[in-house]
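Contributing new records

If you add data, match the layout below exactly. Sequence lines come first and carry their own label; structure lines follow with theirs. Keep one chain per record. Anything else will be rejected by the validation script.
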Amino acid sequence: MDISDLLTPERVIANLHATSKKQALQELARRAAELTGESERAVFDVLLERERLGTTGVGGGIAIPHGRLAGLSSMFGLFARLERPVEFESIDERPVDLIFLLLAPATAGADHLKALARVSRLLRDRGICEKLRGTDKREALFALLADSAASHAA
């Protein structure tokens, strides 16, 4: 599975305004609902439920909120670069400024875990994250994610 299978330029937010973890998740749920046709409340509830199990703030200023939605027909990704970092209860206690939202159909099985691993592997690369933090252009962010993912596809 490629990042380009999950992400399109329309699914990249260059300057998401949020002042808290909850607000960031609400904004991501709103945008995901617009793009998938799913209920904003259903998306938000899935994300909140996952956060209750443990933070999706994986460290290094990165969060990968994720969950499964019954009505979804395919894997869905949404990337956001925040205007300002927000507290996210991350494992390293650092605020988050890069968020990759991942939604999977309820029947996704191992595909959900493979996509999660793919995104995690990509965003562990500090060089890529520096470049993502260095631009606020949607097209540039998408190109960085798609091109970097292709070169990391080993």
